[in-house]
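Morning run. Coffee first, then this:
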Amino acid sequence: MSHSLWQTVSGIVQPGHRVASGTTSDSPYPRGTIEMQLPFFQALGLDLSGYFRGTLNLSLSPHTFQLVRPEFTFRAVAWTDLHPPEDFSFSRCRLIFEGTAYDSLIYFPHPETKARHFQNPSVVEVMAPPIANLSYGSQVELDYNPLELVVNPG
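And here it is:
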């Protein structure tokens, strides 16, 4: 997609549940959910091997978002036997931090099929490559495809 069609919204990196990365002590997924899901997405045609094995939680507050026509949607992905299969969608984006743009993906486990860890509607999860010096509280810009993601004013 031509970068000129992308729109930009500001966000702040905030702590998440730390289940995607497996760094929370009480997670039933010690390797992290992303590490476990990778082979399933790979088999469905989406290679996530270049991304960090976790998600960045970006608060877009006061904005909320809706994923309306994501590039990738995978239904009934049975990646664990701890709960029923889940639906996932992905939309290409760019995360801009300290003047550098990183090709990334919006990661969206569909709430209606997600067993736990519901997100605030102002928080978008992003998969990105490892980014030096990025931490909780970092201010970033998110370039997104407005045909796939709608950002609503708060």
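The first strand starts at residue 7 and ends at 14. Good start to the day.
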